Amino acid sequence: MIKPLLFTYLGMVIIVIVMDFRHLKQAAAINRWLSYGLIALGTGLWFYVTHLSKTFFVAVWISHVIQRFLPLP
User: Which distant-in-sequence residues (6+ apart) come within 8 Å of 71 by Cβ?
Assistant: First the structure.
C-alpha cells in the first residue's frame, strides 16, 4: 500500500523539481543558490525518512569525526 503511494509522490516531486529548475534559471544568483540548497535539504530529508532502516544521529556521527582529531587521554 505504501510503496505505490511513495512512487507516485516521488514522480510528482521529480516533475516539480524539473519545473523549478526551469524557472530558477531566470532568478538572481542568491535566490537560485538558496533554492538549490532548500531542494537538496528537502531531498536529503526525504531520503533519510523513507530509505534508512535504522536511525542515524547526526551528533553521534560528528562525535566520531571529532574524536579522530582530538588527543585521547
Answer: none
Tell me which residue has cell 536529503: 44
CA dist 53 and 71 (Å) reads 33
Backbone angles phi, psi at 21, to 5 degrees: -65, -35
Neighbours of 34 (CB within 10 A): 13
The pLDDT tens digits of the residues spanning 37-46 come to 887 887 777 7
Per-residue pLDDT reduced to its tens digit, 28-38: 878 778 888 88
- CA 52 distance to own-chain centroid: 13
Question: Is the pLDDT confidence value at 1 over 60?
Answer: no
Specify the DSSP class assigned to residue 72.
P
